[in-house]
Amino acid sequence: MFPKNLHQKIKASKVVAVLVIDKAEHAVPVAQALIRGGLATMELTLRTPAALPALKAIREGVPEMLAGIGTILTTEQVDQVVEAGAAFGVAPGMNPIIIKHAQDRGLPFGPGIMTPSDIETAIELGCRTIKYFPAETSGGIKHLTGIAAPYIHLGLDFIPLGGLNANNMTDYLRSPLISAIGGSWIAKQDVINAEDWDTIEKNAREAREIADSI
Predict the structure, then answer these.
(1) What pLDDT score was predicted for residue 178?
(2) Dihedral (C-alpha) 100, 84, 187, 158: value to the nearest 10 degrees?
């Protein structure tokens, strides 16, 4: 469900900054800080009303940022995300209704998995790039390596999210299963609300340097 060029961009980025934004006016400064730090892919989560206005602001003000939307839980949200111009969409879980609606709307979509049954449902629905969530509390890269083993010949790849940070991201990025990792530590909600763009830039640069060293 991810077009080849989009998949290549995400794989090249290696790190996707995952954000919860409370105020749409923070969107452009956050995106600019991430770009300065070397990260050009982000996921704005639909946990606040500001997410979609933030996406629109980033598309207009920071067009070089590849911006997607996460925490998509309803078909109505799929429609809203498409209309807002998201580059891709993701969800925490495996909901066939949402996946099929995203397909119908032409939205590149990555559902969340944590079991072999989840993976098989994703395969049946045509998904090949899949979110692994919550990564660390599910058993980390060791658990993913085990449950993904029967499906390696199908060319699946995964984007883990949940509990990742600068100290453990290397363990994931070294695995051939991983196309990129999702990081919410890079621009935490309280740091964004404090308008501490320097810290976000610093965190992004550190993540970029670690990713590039692998």
Answers:
(1) 98
(2) 20
- CA-CA distances (angstroms) from residue 185 to 9, 16, 205, 207? 21, 11, 13, 10
Domain span at 84: 4-213
Per-residue pLDDT at 152 exceeds 90:
yes
User: What CATH number does residue 15 fall under?
Assistant: 3.20.20.70
If you search the block for the tokens 């995203």, which residue do you land on? 102
Three-state secondary structure string covering 137-189: CCCHHHHHHHHHHHHHHHCCEEEECCCCCCCCHHHHHCCCCECCEEECCCCCH
The tokens 């207009």 sit on which residue? 60
Q: How confident is the model at residue 18, as a pLDDT?
A: 98
For residues 46-72, average pLDDT: 98
- pLDDT score at 1: 79
Exposure b/e, 47-56, CB count within 10 A at least 16 = b? ebebbbbbbb
Are 122 and 113 in contact, with CB atoms under 8 Å apart? yes
- Based on the structure, what is the number of domains in the chain? 1
Please list the active-site residues. Answer: 43, 131
Give the pLDDT confidence of 13-36 residue by residue, as tens digits.
Answer: 999 999 999 999 999 999 999 999
Burial class (CB in 10 A: 0-12, 13-18, 19+), 104: exposed
Three-class DSSP category at 59: helix
